[in-house]
Amino acid sequence: QVQLVESGGGLVRAGGSLRLSCAASGRTVSSYIMAWFRQAPGKEREFVSAISWSYSSTYYADSVKGRFIISKDNAKNTMYLQMNSLKPEDTAVYYCALGRRLLGPYDAWGQGTQVTVSS
After folding, report:
1. What was the pLDDT predicted at 104?
2. Whole-angstrom Cα distance, residue 95 to residue 45?
3. Strand 68-73 and strand 78-83: pairing?
4. CA of 79: how far to CAs of 15, 84, 119, in Å?
């Protein structure tokens, strides 16, 4: 069974940057989709970005397109989310997830990492 561990969250001012990491262990992820979701207080969890581990295809929500960059390091089994030009509305708990298809279902989830953007 795969374990996912996120890191890199924190407090940043609007316009700043953060890089999130998601390390996978326990299973090869070569045939999977890995994704980032986020959930703000009082809101439903929403898709942020995803990457195909085999083909390196990337996908972004419209709200983050042009500001966030998803990437991966095959050797480290780790996915990253570089978040630039952060806005207060990006404040949320960010989760990484692993699944077979972009639209899900996602089989494994990390514990989440808090990102807070102050205005």
Report:
1. 86
2. 9
3. antiparallel
4. 23, 16, 28
* pLDDT for res 27: 78
Cα 37 from Cα 50, distance rounded (Å): 9
Measure the CA dihedral 61/80/5/37, to 10°.
0
pLDDT lower than 50: segments of the chain: none
Contacts 24+ apart (CB under 8 A), 99-106: 99/32, 99/33, 99/35, 100/31, 100/32, 100/33, 101/33, 102/33, 102/35, 102/50, 102/52, 102/59, 106/35
Which residues, in sequence order, are CB contacts of 45 under 8 Å at separation 6+?
A: 37, 38, 39, 95
CA distance 35 to 55: 14
